[in-house]
Amino acid sequence: MGYFRENVEKIKGYQPGFQPKQADVVKLNTNENPYPPSPLAMDVLKNISPPQLRRYPDPLGTAFREAAGKVNAVPSDWILCCNGGDDLLSIAFRAFCDEKRPVAYPVPTYSLYPVLADLQNCKAIEIPFDKEFNLPSKLASTGAALTIVCNPNAPTGSFISVNELGSLADELDTVLLIDEAYVDFAEQNCTSLVKNFDNVIILRSLSKGYSLAGLRFGYAIAQPPLIEGLIKVKDSYNVDAVAIAVASAAISDQQYFRQNVEKVKAERSKVAEQLRQIGFEVPPSSSNFVLAKSRNGKAADIYDKLVQRNIFVRYFNLPGLDDKLRITIGTAEQNDKLLNALKEILSE
């Protein structure tokens, strides 16, 4: 007899991107920012005091709520601190979904969603994107208690307009969660929708644009009734004192943040163009990665040959993705190493 619930026994669980142990690798597989965090955030980290570690943290992370509210032009009680964006997703599934309350989302998308649905024992209604990754019209009529749209989408990097998502929010009488983990690298975001719709939750992450993937910090933006309900579901102290202090400093340093984002976007344009020149199909991306389809070889084979050269990108052995590679945008040096290696592989 198994010890776990039946649905837990059955699922495989989420598989994070491979984390190589050796230092001398080109790591472009988990969408980390290649540039260091804000110097202001590092100064705060260096000056963490013993009392900050001895005491329990502020359960709501007030300092960060105030800083994030200022950046997003919303009151601080419209912000919920989370242990990374994944924590908010877990909270949302526990708050809105069960055996009788399904979730819906377009596919392909972030592969954690179906895992969380299985853990919550709720039905997942998956609506396929078309070839251009337009928002599926059927998403508005699923009857799901929670609808999730990852925007920019992972792993495609495609972007759905704010107006389209506003129309979806207007059609739904249940919750729409817009996963904006990668929105720092897009030209628009959906913060305005929170002000106009009381059923919208925005997910944000400090892992990508703010170079804090190792800190595990994200947040929600929503109107207070939704935030108050989510607070009931979250862990008592779901973000720690060090994370609150460092994240507050990082999000306040908007000048440094914008400089790093622009560097990533410039490299993204260069990498996409050079990939096209050597035979890849690369659609436009609004994230810090590109999704590249090779016309000259199998993606799995190219992935393996890159690994042999200590270069790691992401390969998904899934329908619609098994002929593509998702490539995180790194530094200019990392990107050049990748491109040179691909040229060698494709000429073999």
Descriptive terms for the model:
single chain; 348 residues; alpha/beta; Aspartate Aminotransferase, domain 1; Aspartate Aminotransferase, domain 2
- Main sheet attributes: strand count, strand direction, barrel closure: 7 strands, mixed
CATH superfamily of the largest domain: Type I PLP-dependent aspartate aminotransferase-like (Major domain)
In the CATH classification, which architecture of the largest domain applies?
A: 3-Layer(aba) Sandwich
User: How many strands in all?
Assistant: 13
Strand content: 15-25%
* Topology as a string of helices (H) and strands (E): HEHHHEHEHEEHEHEEHHHEEHEEEH
Structural class: alpha/beta
CATH topology grouping of the largest domain: Aspartate Aminotransferase, domain 2
Average of the residue pLDDT scores: 95
Topology, please?
Layout lengths: L5 H5 L15 E2 L11 H8 L3 H5 L7 H11 L6 E4 L2 H12 L6 E5 L4 H9 L3 E5 L17 E5 L11 H10 L3 E5 L11 H6 L3 E6 L12 E4 L2 H10 L7 H12 L1 H24 L2 E2 L7 E6 L4 H10 L2 E2 L1 E2 L8 E5 L3 H16 L1
Parallel strand pairs: 1-11, 3-4, 3-5, 5-6, 6-7
Antiparallel strand pairs: 2-8, 7-8, 9-10, 10-13, 12-13
Helix pairs in contact: 2-10, 4-10, 5-6, 11-13
Can you describe what's shown?
With 348 residues, the chain is an alpha/beta fold. The chain has 2 domains: 6-36 and 255-347, Aspartate Aminotransferase, domain 1 (Alpha-Beta Complex); 39-253, 3-Layer(aba) Sandwich (Aspartate Aminotransferase, domain 2). Helices cover 40% and strands 15% of the residues. It is built from 13 helices and 13 strands. The strands form 3 sheets. A 7-stranded mixed beta sheet has the order 2-8-7-6-5-3-4, sandwiched between helices. The protein has a 4-stranded antiparallel beta sheet with strand order 9-10-13-12, with helices on one face. The protein has a two-stranded parallel sheet with strand order 1-11. Strand 9 and strand 10 (289-294) form a beta hairpin. The N and C termini lie far apart (52 Å).
